[in-house]
Design goal:
Length: about 130
């Protein structure tokens, strides 16, 4: 298994906040336990709402944790089929992205053999404009 490293941030509200923050002194080791694939509109909306409780995180809480022995984040990789990017998420038992890292090029990751969940978050759907 190849080793992967990323800069994780605690309680970032959006991808912009992840990208704009100064990196931690060290990158942390990570291992992806599951890929969460969202529809494109929901994925782009989620990138701006990382502190929102979402069911795909709540459903997969047991697949995420920080392994103190190996100093590795076991995390979800949230993306969409047509995106080149993704987010690593570790919830620390919560229903939101307590720790997150932005991955600008998902093709740099080896995702073969990792389970994929196709999620559809109602809370992330665009709100319809009320009729007048």
């Amino acid at each position: 298994m190849s080793e992967n490293f990323a800069s994780f941030y605690r309680k970032a509200s959006s991808v912009r906040e992840l990208v704009d923050k100064a990196p931690f002194p060290e990158k942390a080791r990570f291992q992806i336990t599951k890929v969460i694939e969202l529809p494109a509109k929901q994925y782009h909306r989620y990138m701006n709402e990382l502190l929102r409780d979402v069911s795909f995180i709540s459903r997969n809480v047991e697949d995420m944790r920080f392994d103190g022995k190996t100093e590795t984040f076991l995390c979800l990789f949230v993306t969409c089929r047509d995106a080149n990017t993704g987010l690593l998420v570790e919830s620390e038992g919560f229903g939101y992205a307590r720790y997150a890292a932005f991955i600008p090029e998902k093709k740099a990751l080896v995702l073969d053999g990792i389970p994929v969940e196709h999620a559809n978050e109602k809370c992330l759907r665009q709100r319809s404009v009320p009729e007048r």
